[in-house]
Amino acid sequence: MRKLCPNADREDALETILEVPIPEELFNSLGTNINLRCENLHAWMKGQTSDKWSAPVVLGRINELRFLLYHVGSPLIPLQVHIDKISRPVKDSTIQASTAKYIVQQYIAATGGQQAISSIQSMCVIGEAKIGATAFHLGDQTVKGKATEEVGGFVLWQKNPDLWCLEFLVSGCKVFSGSNGQLSWRQASNPPSLTTGPPRPLRRFLQGLDPKGTANLFIDAVCIGEKVINNEDCFILKLETSQATLDAQSGPKYEIIHHTLWGYFSQRSGLLLQFEDSRMLRMKSNVDNDDGDGVFWETSAESVIQDYRYVDGINIAHSGKTSVRVFRYGEQSANHQREIEETWKIDEVGFNIWGLDQNYFMPPKDK
């Protein structure tokens, strides 16, 4: 990952620190020499100017990038992840719930042990990703479009599941999102727009990056069976979002109907090898007089988690692939389905970042 941009005007000048590191291959593709690469990188980072946002071609391009970043780059989950000690009494639990708690304890041991993961007070992650829409279906027809693969980088900061921030930059379009413990927020750079909601964890942390948060999430799950993932026998843990949580996470203009999560834990190593979730959301057609109609969005995501390596005694996944399917239907909406795929790689992980306080996670001011 490239973190610095050389000064093309003066060789003896200090290099510019990039807010979000970008893949080296992306920097090399920006030109045949260092001066051209720096010039194109400056234009790429600056993005489109406001007077061009209304142009149909530019607007369509920006909307596509934001769609990709929202659905696969920075999705949230509605569940509350506890930050206390990872344990629950097995007394009076069902066999399925007791089995799930045992599997989670095996996962804790596989990722470094209770003492090691409990010592994590904060973390920073730098990674790169390739995102692309693989298919588009309109009704019963498959519409062939120009296949593109967007390359970018991201930086993650976290103190606990409700205190985090993410900067994700792809092709000049950046999404800046986070949670300060009281609300979650997301801001796109092109054009600037800020949306807020209840505090929620970032899904990306559950893709092998945050063992403590993952264990605390699945400690309340149930074991529903077994499945072979990448030639490994895995236990399946399932977690349903309660109706009270769904109601609390819903807003005046939309309703979350259901959200279910599944974790596939290796019987051999104890590690999380696959993470899935499925959500249905209804956009209300009439906020003042809700009649149950509207536009429905179904989103299902499947993340294959790979390349576990130890960092300071913690076993962290360093690569993987996420496939997302988005299906829209309902009143005054043409039924359509999008399929998106992201491959990601982690370049750096650091724990217990000195000086990372609550003020760092405050939402930006809406302009």
TrEMBL record:
<protein>
    <recommendedName>
        <fullName>DUF620 domain-containing protein</fullName>
    </recommendedName>
</protein>
<dbReference type="InterPro" id="IPR006873">
    <property type="entry name" value="DUF620"/>
</dbReference>
<dbReference type="Pfam" id="PF04788">
    <property type="entry name" value="DUF620"/>
</dbReference>
